[in-house]
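In the previous lecture we treated proteins in isolation. Real proteins rarely work alone, and many bind small molecules. This record shows how such a complex is specified: first the sequence, then the SMILES for pyridoxal-5'-phosphate.
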Amino acid sequence: MIPIAKPLIGEEEKTAVMHVLDSGMLASGPRTEEFEKKFAEYVGTKHAVATTSGTTALHLGLLALGLAHGDEVILPAFSFIATANVVLFCDAVPVFCDVDYKTFNIDPQKIEKLITKKTKAIMPVHLYGQAADMDPIQELAEKHDIHVIGDACQAHGASYDGKMVGSFGDIECFSFYPTKNMTTGEGGMITTDNDEVAELMISLRNHGREKTKWGYEHGRLGYNYRMTDIGAAIGLEQLKKLPKNVQMRQNNADYYDRHLFKVETPYVIPKARHAYHQYTIKSNNRDVITQNLKKNEIGFGIYYPQPLHTYKHLKKYAHKDLKISEKLGDEVVSLPVHPGLTNEELKKIIDVVNKAYQFPDK
Ligand SMILES: Cc1ncc(COP(=O)(O)O)c(C=O)c1O
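The predicted 3D structure, ligand included, written as tokens:
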């Protein structure tokens, strides 16, 4: 079986974890601080705040921007469920925007008409590892004086206009789930240049704790969203390997681009360097491809089979102008693109996808 994703854990991660276990400091401590420092350096921001997941990173980010009851957040209708759920966690309103058919990302042309007096933030998602088109999004945010919080959960190692994803908007949030471009087991990270926002998030992730004499004073409602040093130790090693692993993903994607036909391969906007968390093709005859992949024991993923506004708890936020998101749900299929693939495996996948149309039963 060729898996759709494969976390690459080496001796370095194992040794780093053993050091933490031997140290006796398993909770959030020096390794977490070091990981935050290195991650901020990597994306080029002043601060990075580690959390327990991408979901909790997004939740903290929205809280730190002051999101509260009735505020509206504009986000793409085509994404992972967490992107919308975190808005609901804050008792706020998700306002769905359609995506661009070619890039899968929020369509900047469709954002402005969704802005109201209640709009507090735009939340672009850098889906599959390609940055959303940030220039027009930032312009709109400045014009209307609203925040930008990037969902970078799939985009470690991606860049836009020469700047790393993580350094855009007010805040960006990453996930370190095991299938991502880098992992900590489970975990998340928020990046920002804003000192006040960073301090607030550090407090919110630790039950609203304040910097006081005794350390057990709590100035606000908060959560336990603290990363462990075990996770951070893995993350530090994974971060060192990230540039090489992203390059390998790009090499695999280039190879697919050159050899796949009959399916629509990913489109990369000129300003973006795609990090290929997923290599997602489109086909109006997806079942033929997926059946052939199954028969040949090749893993694949349908990210995502339905757009967010079609889920039961989100249906009330649906509207008519979300047709591209609906269409994509029927057409996308992601192929393995991870750095663990061998040349033979890549060739086999290409052969199986290309032959799906010619010989559907092979
Ligand atoms: C686009 C997107 N947003 C948010 C998340 C949530 O991250 P996590 O699973 O770490 O909570 C993910 C992770 O799968 C994601 O892909």
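Summary for your notes: The domain at 11-236 is CATH 3.40.640.10 (Aspartate Aminotransferase; domain 2). The chain has two domains: 11-236, 242-358.
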